[in-house]
Every structure is written in structure tokens, then in C-alpha cells.
Design a protein that fits this description.
Largest sheet: 4 strands, antiparallel
Shape: globular
Helix content: 25-40%
CATH superfamily: HPr-like
Order of helices and strands: EHEEHEH
Mean pLDDT: 95
Radius of gyration: 11 Å
Distance between the termini: 30 Å
CATH architecture: 2-Layer Sandwich
Number of strands: 4
Number of helices: 3
Number of domains: 1
Length: 87
């Protein structure tokens, strides 16, 4: 199991469109992947779960993965966040 903390820098946070990109990317991996904000955690493969966290701009999230491709999953999700979800 590995994890990384990343700051959400895009203007609207992890809502609607960015959350969809995030979930699509997470679903490319076989590992179990979660996103954590504060004391709350949700599956990174669930739109409802990710949106329920209410992640805003400048929030620090932890991406956690466990499985065969955990390193690739966390690195790819971190890169997506750092690129501002390609917006």
C-alpha cells in the first residue's frame, strides 16, 4: 500500500468534470484506490464517493492505492491533479 499527498490547485476543486476525469483515470488500474480529505475517505473509482468529500481548491488530499499497479495508479492520479485536470 502506498500513498501521496497532493494539493488541489484547479479553480473549482474536485467537482463534476474534474472528478469524472479523476475517476476515469482511477478505473484504469486494478489496484484498490481511495482518496482522503481530512478524516473522510472514499473510493477514487466512485463518482458519488469522490463528490461527497466536497474537495475544494487548495484542499490537500491523500491518494492511497493497494495492489499490483499501486505505484502507477498513484503517480498517474497525482500527475492529473498537478496538471489541473487538463483544464
Amino acid at each position: 500500500m502506498i500513498s501521496k499527498e497532493v494539493t488541489i490547485t484547479n479553480s473549482i476543486g474536485l467537482h463534476a468534470r474534474p472528478a469524472t476525469y479523476f475517476i476515469q483515470k482511477a478505473n484504469n488500474y486494478k489496484s484498490s484506490v481511495w482518496v482522503e480529505c481530512g478524516s473522510r475517505r472514499a473510493s477514487a473509482k466512485s463518482l458519488l464517493g469522490v463528490l461527497s468529500l466536497g474537495i475544494d481548491k487548495d484542499s490537500v488530499v491523500k491518494i492511497i492505492a493497494d495492489g499490483l499497479d499501486e505505484v502507477e495508479a498513484v503517480d498517474a492520479l497525482e500527475a492529473l491533479i498537478l496538471k489541473g485536470f487538463n483544464e
